[in-house]
Amino acid sequence: IFLSFVTGFYYEGELEMRPAKVARRYIMTWFLPDLCIVLIDGFSLLFSSDKEDYDSSETFLLRLSKFSRALRLTRLLRLIRASEALTKLAEQGAFSWVETALG
User: Positive or negative, the Cα torsion across 23, 25, 27, 32?
Assistant: First the structure.
């Protein structure tokens, strides 16, 4: 979660790195799902047991744990798609200005 507050994003083709804008965008998009995942994982670790028969609260926590894994997978797939899109842009020469600036 903490790293997401300092990870820039592209807006209208330009990299946005201003901390206030990055934090605002993260809070408006992925903060709540990430917080849910962390809380669910924390609760499932806190209340996990080795009993064979689970009561309803433990069953609920197990289901929430599965849901949090699904959310993480969704986020991972989103990152993969973004990476593929950036690769395509790089292949098309969209970042040639970087080579010019650095070269």
Answer: negative
Looking from the CA of 103 toward its CB, the CA atoms found within 13 Å total: 6
| % pLDDT > 70, the chain | 71
Long-range contacts of 41-48 (CB under 8 A, 24+ apart): 41/65, 41/68
* Burial class of residue 30, CB neighbours in 10 A (0-12, 13-18, 19+): middle
User: E strands, the chain, where?
Assistant: 9-11, 14-16
3-state helix, strand, coil in the chain (%, to 5): 70, 5, 20
Segment 78-92, tens digit of pLDDT: 778 777 777 777 777
Coil, strand or helix at 17: coil
pTM for this entry: 0.47
Which pairs from 27-31 meet CB under 8 Å and 24+ separation? 30/4, 30/75, 31/1, 31/4
